[in-house]
Amino acid sequence: MASLEYYVQESQNLAVLGETASYIPALDEQDPSQFAVCLIDENGNQFLAGDTSTSFTLQSISKVISFIYACEEMTLDYVLQYVDVEPTGDSFNSIIRLENTEFGKPFNPMINAGAITITSLLPGQNREEKFQHLCDFMGKMIGKPVKINQEVYESEIKTADRNRSIAYYLKSNHILQGDVESVLDVYFRHCAIEVTVESLARIGLILSNDGVDPITNERFFSKEISKVAKALMLTCGMYNASGKFATFVGLPSKSGVSGGILSVAEHEDLQGLQGKIGIATFGPAIDPIGNSVAGIEFLKRISIEYDLSIF
Amino acid sequence: MASLEYYVQESQNLAVLGETASYIPALDEQDPSQFAVCLIDENGNQFLAGDTSTSFTLQSISKVISFIYACEEMTLDYVLQYVDVEPTGDSFNSIIRLENTEFGKPFNPMINAGAITITSLLPGQNREEKFQHLCDFMGKMIGKPVKINQEVYESEIKTADRNRSIAYYLKSNHILQGDVESVLDVYFRHCAIEVTVESLARIGLILSNDGVDPITNERFFSKEISKVAKALMLTCGMYNASGKFATFVGLPSKSGVSGGILSVAEHEDLQGLQGKIGIATFGPAIDPIGNSVAGIEFLKRISIEYDLSIF
Amino acid sequence: MASLEYYVQESQNLAVLGETASYIPALDEQDPSQFAVCLIDENGNQFLAGDTSTSFTLQSISKVISFIYACEEMTLDYVLQYVDVEPTGDSFNSIIRLENTEFGKPFNPMINAGAITITSLLPGQNREEKFQHLCDFMGKMIGKPVKINQEVYESEIKTADRNRSIAYYLKSNHILQGDVESVLDVYFRHCAIEVTVESLARIGLILSNDGVDPITNERFFSKEISKVAKALMLTCGMYNASGKFATFVGLPSKSGVSGGILSVAEHEDLQGLQGKIGIATFGPAIDPIGNSVAGIEFLKRISIEYDLSIF
Amino acid sequence: MASLEYYVQESQNLAVLGETASYIPALDEQDPSQFAVCLIDENGNQFLAGDTSTSFTLQSISKVISFIYACEEMTLDYVLQYVDVEPTGDSFNSIIRLENTEFGKPFNPMINAGAITITSLLPGQNREEKFQHLCDFMGKMIGKPVKINQEVYESEIKTADRNRSIAYYLKSNHILQGDVESVLDVYFRHCAIEVTVESLARIGLILSNDGVDPITNERFFSKEISKVAKALMLTCGMYNASGKFATFVGLPSKSGVSGGILSVAEHEDLQGLQGKIGIATFGPAIDPIGNSVAGIEFLKRISIEYDLSIF
Q: Where, in this chain's numbering, is substrate bound (chains A, B, C, D) (predicted)?
């Protein structure tokens, strides 16, 4: 049986097949050959490899966190009045289904239309409060204050017209609540939150353990919400390759165009890691669909090697 | 042969089958039984019937005028780089084809996506200048200053999220030029320009006579632009009933949800009217597609009676 | 003023920009540099140029003839229960709108879905009778028996799966009447009918003269049906370039991928031709949309030169 | 903790909320209040409740079996050249995505377009052989000969035009292999295969145990294929409610409009059942989406009660 280190190396070698996201200068300037991995188990044992000190922005990974927080604060029933939980074969930024579907309800919270809607449901009197609440929630999970990458945030706001179009469409259908520009501002701040693989893997561990941090025994969200979130990650978490990832890797995961991937797993002895496991990878070279090339490869290889698939 | 008066009466009787547009209070409050008609020929002879003193807003009829003005000022070739001239079976406010078409170029200037794009191409340093230029152009054609219905304008700005969504989509595809909110502001002011059937029929007369007012001999736009505008009116001017209107009426026409219709015709002796003829009707009770019930009926009846169809 | 001969030559020179249709060997083997033109006026005066002896198959031009014949035999009202008359921006062989439209009624008779439906409405006990009736109708118009190109017919039947898919979709929506394979057989025979530019221009003349052959004074179809057919040709007759053709040429026309175009016009003195005029061109080099490059150019040039546009 | 018997009763009470499938008389005539359940564990322990002697046709459940068999015989790589494994929000019988997707490859084998393609890939010289091979494969799994409901098969063949349309579309895109009518014939025979909940649960047990029958230790398909099949069941197995079922039930499952559902689970002690478990339910009253009302309710209730969700 090959070691995790071996798979990290093998996967990093494939990074040359991808490219950094080009629509934002700050993302494009990342070193495409970077690759960092963190696994953490329920006893707090960690496996770390690569440039683990590098911070990267959550981008679409934030969709999982805002969804969980909105459900925890506003109840799952309330949130599901505004967003469905069905996968769709369309692009993450597609607007077509909003026109073709009765009421224009977004299909799921993992596409932009759904995530922008979720953002509009967050508790808080104004954009600052809404964002602060979310940061507090996330900060408690990772055990340190959350901060955003100002440069990325400002770039995203500037290139936001497609998302603005989606948001106004949702507003015209009475799906999006509140002021569009405020909602988008909070949305882009989520996307620009900086994490390391260590922080992200801790969130994965909490998800893996049904909402409770197994190291501190603190509960952050209900088991029910955890299950819904993991189901959404599996069915819709990897953009238009979600089906292939479910089929050939089989781990509930969510990726972002910055090159990060959040995953959850469980194993009896994964090179010493035991029980519930949170996984985070970061490799900024992404494939045309938007997923980290090295990250996908690593998760695929260890899923096969250690039989991690939930199927 | 029945008289025009007879057809006015017969058509007005059908107005009960329609309803006033409900999305704006100012439109909804119009008297649905109203009906006014004006025909004017190249010698200045007029036929007037009904409540001809009533003003109504142009709404989508403005799309023809802004298209003509943009082409006249910026050249047809320039304008056609941003908007195509193909009919589409989609709704006037559909966004789907922008996603499904390469480059996201709107199919024609008679749907909202196309008309908003046209508005963004108008000459002028800012929104005031852009709108003023257009008003000057139109004011010269109708021989009096142009003014807008402030209440309608403000209502439209407030309920504009679907159009805002379209505009930001166009912006994200680099089709719409300039600032979205400024463009939308000018667009909604166009829509809120007030006219009477007399003013509107005069514009029809100029269109009928290839861009020259036959009474004053003043040219307002080129013959080529006139032909393009009339072709667009015929193929795309009556919302999703454009094909049926072309087939069964056969007059280049453009309607608005306020209940107005602008048409052009030609005849040797239409109850005394001769040669090039401009026609305007106003009946605020519209059908589900958005066309004035009485207006459609009147144009259909006189087209058959006087063999006015261009086919 | 340049002569018609000059425009024929100029247009033929452009044929190199197109290519013969490649999906059927018999069409692909045509000489792409060929170009033939016939104009005939209401007094029987003809203008002929190019390889006028060459026969070519009607392909989509047959859609006009079968529509007219179905309306004449079954009434316009009956036919319009099964097919609408609205233009669409979709491809001629698109199936999407059948799924997205209530009842799945084809948008117009000039796209394959509409033309296949029309074929199913033709009178006759079986495929032989249906086709024979149509041939008789057309044969009387052109004054000689109609025959098909057997090789083309057999090729089309073999490569017919897309049309078969459309036909079964229509059948499942209860739009197409009768047996699918019989209907398709008659449909492909229509498409494979051979004509010369002289025969085709004669049909154009009859259309131009509202259903009556002005030379023999024989009526073939009603004025109403003639108007509907010409409106459809203008709004939907030139595939996805119908809008551009209406705008820049402005003659009701129908083209086929074999390279033929049928047009109608009217003029006081078009190089000696007077009054109602039928036009046919044949140039097998087609553009990517499916229209004859030389044919389009010729019609555009003479439309501008002689001011033939109906707008 | 409530008993399985209790949940069977509770779920059966809800059957009144559904209706039997109406498009085929033989399905419509089923007793809508019927409900049968079978669970079988890896030691051969069974739980049986309700009308377990009733046979019902597989309908869409056959899609799982034909997919597995095609992969086992032709290799997974080969099959995935023709069908993707991505979920889609479209209806099971939608044709739109075949037009909108490059190459027209069906999105997954659980929609009709994908399943018809899979059928065309089955080994065998002709339709009889193809079907016989599949029956042999399935017969070995359930330990008795497979037979079809002739009445259902004949009804489906008669009302097959929508599927015929899909098949010819696939053929025109060179996705479907072989003769369309033969493929459809085999496809409809699959759909008409009769099973009882006992037979179906046995197949579920084999799937649950990665392709090996744990009672006989016979391997029927590879672990890899088993994982792919279960991933497809989870992401696409319950029609347009697949996402909601994954979220709130979380068991890889496939349903058919006859009212059957095939599921897989695992538990330490589910009322005496231990380890890998196969589940089958049959309740012919279906919801508008096509899933058995009682079946969905039963699986949801026991998933919550026994914490069966894979998430």
A: 60, 112, 156, 163, 187, 239, 257
D1 has pLDDT over 80: no
* Closest CB to C108 among B86, B240, B243: B243
Minimal Cα distance from B167: which residue of A? A165
Structure tokens belonging to residue C143: 């004054």
Model pTM score: 0.95
- The architecture of the domain spanning D62-191 is 3-Layer(aba) Sandwich (3.40)
The string of DSSP codes covering B22-80 is -SSHHHHTS-TT--EEEEEETT--EEEEESTT--EE-GGGHHHHHHHHHHHHH-HHHHH
Residue type, D106: P
Residues 6+ apart with CB under 8 A from B28: B20, B21, B22
Using pLDDT thresholds of 50, 70 and 90, give the confidence band for residue B24.
confident
The CATH topology of domain A61-191 is Beta-lactamase (3.40.710)
B182: left (phi over 0), alpha (psi -120 to 50) or beta: alpha
Which pLDDT does position D160 carry in this prediction? 92
Nearest C-alpha neighbor of C174 from the set C120, C111, C97, C110: C120
Minimal Cα–Cα distance from A167 to chain D, Å?
21
- Those residues of chain A that have pLDDT short of 50 are none
Q: Is the ipTM of this complex over 0.90?
A: yes
Residue B166 has what pLDDT?
Answer: 96
Neighboring chains of C (3 or more beta-carbon pairs < 8 A): B, D
Give chain D positions within 8 Å (CB) of C100.
Answer: 96
Residue B137, H or E segment: helix B127-142
| Per-residue pLDDT tens over the stretch B256-290 | 999 999 999 999 999 999 999 999 999 999 999 99
Question: Quick check: C70 contacting B, CB < 8 Å?
Answer: no
Task: Please say if the pLDDT value at position B155 is more than 80.
Answer: yes
CA distance, residue B250 to nearest chain C CA (Å):
7
Q: Is B266 exposed, middle or buried (0-12, 13-18, 19+ CB in 10 A)?
A: middle
B94 has a chain A CB within 8 A of its CB: yes
- CB distance D252 to D263 below 8 Å: yes
CATH class entry, domain B60-191: alpha beta
Between vectors from CA B80 to CA B78 and to CA B85, what angle results, nearest 5°?
165
Q: List the catalytic residues of C.
A: 60, 63, 187, 239, 257
pLDDT at D151: 95
The structural architecture, per CATH, of the domain A4-59+194-306 is: 3-Layer(aba) Sandwich (3.40)
C208 near B CB under 8 A: no
Give the pLDDT confidence score for residue A101 in this predicted structure: 78
Q: Does this chain's domain D4-59+193-306 share its CATH topology with D62-191?
A: yes
Q: Is the pLDDT of residue C194 over 80?
A: yes
* Pick among C76, C77, C86 to test the B interface (most B CBs inside 10 A): C86
Cβ within 8 Å of residue B171, ≥6 positions away: A161, A165, B180
For residues C305 and C302, give the distance between their C-alpha atoms in angstroms, rounded to a whole number. 5
Q: Tell me the average pLDDT of chain C.
A: 95
Residue of C nearest to B108 (CA): C243
SS3 D265: strand
Domain positions in chain A are 4-59+194-306, 61-191
State yes or no: pLDDT of B95 exceeds 90: no
pLDDT for position D57? 97
